[in-house]
Amino acid sequence: MNADSLAAPIVRPLWRDRALVLAGIVMSAFNLRTAVTSLTPLLDTLGETFGFGPTMTGVLGMVPTAAFAVFGVVTPSIAHRLGLERTALLAMLLAAIGLAMRAFVGDTAMLLVTSAIALSGMGMGNVVLPPLVKRYFGDRVGTVSTLYITVLQLGTILPALLAVPIATAAGWRVSLGAWSLVAIAAALPWIGVLWMERFGHSHQAKALAKTHDEAVACGDPAPELDATRDADDANATVAGHVWRSPVAWGLTLMFGMTSLTTYSMFTWLPKLLTEAGGSHELGGTMVALFSTMGLLSALFLPALAVRIRNPFPIVAFCGLSYIGAFAGLLLAPMGAPLLWVALLGLGPSTFPLSLTLINLRTRTPGGSSRLSGFVQGVGYSLSCLGPLLFGWLHEATHGWTWPFAFLTACLLALLYGGWLASKPRMLEDTW
Hints:
Radius of gyration: 21 Å
Distance between the termini: 18 Å
Shape: globular
CATH architecture: Up-down Bundle
CATH superfamily: MFS general substrate transporter like domains
CATH topology: Growth Hormone, Chain: A
Order of helices and strands: HHHHHHHHHHHHHHHHHHHH
Largest sheet: none
Strand content: under 5%
């Protein structure tokens, strides 16, 4: 039995009565990684400017996963009080403020603080997008998941590709701060959605109201639910049950270990290549290639996951790709860097698979919201020390053997989590 057989909503045109929501989801997705990949290609430059070394580089690499972990835990409660749409708006406003402030920092401490502000918004966005897809596009989960995860990957690639050229042309401050404009643009559709929900009389406004009422009926977080203690108790019960499910823990392990490896590579791949004799431009380009491979998987994996009863073979293929990449980067990093990084970029295909399974393994938007918060909160908590430990092992041993041995151990946990998560069963049936 798969998700399609459990619930087969009537398919309707993608844009009808929900165009602004779709625009908000897609534009928000673009902004979920800009604070990360606009920074990592410039870490050597910033280290020279502010006088920090490899340890602080590892700390900066840890901040994204730490922020995502914290806001993975707290965002379901925020969404319950504010509603998913207001939470999405708040996420984009925080991202814009943090990115803008980061362009004016004068020391390492402020770089950390402003990065944390931007990443707090992005962490909130991570959590609310899957349940927004479930709420408004339950008839098009595969299609909309493909769209927003693809755009998320574009938002990962472009900052990495443009960071060094923009910094060379206009300075690192412009390179870091320019992405705040994109976050401001992503806030506009959510302002429109909320205005239409409150004041509008259009077909879309009526459709939003209808969807809102349906969300209340199925126990999804919405502002009106906060008025009753019973609703709070019911949501607390659902949230309390998530941790008992092997579906939740499997997804958490798969998601967390994927994130640990990804952010370790975002942080340390440029330095690994420059130590092997490559240029700073090569480092930025390889981070962009790493992200581009994720774009390719985002284009087809969500739609494929909807059609496959048990997608564990995909997880196993990702594991083999990781092993090939680790071996190449360790033994001959400049021998075929394009091949090693391409293989490395195929490994995180478990990321779009995890996000899609959050919706495929739940029955309601409420279940999706809580599973999303649990998976991303605990998953990012597991992964947040990855960049720091990878860098510490490199600094302690003056080599890359132990750092890659650490990632290989994490890969085993990823495969076990993928095996648990891929079994065709629903969250609500397993606690």
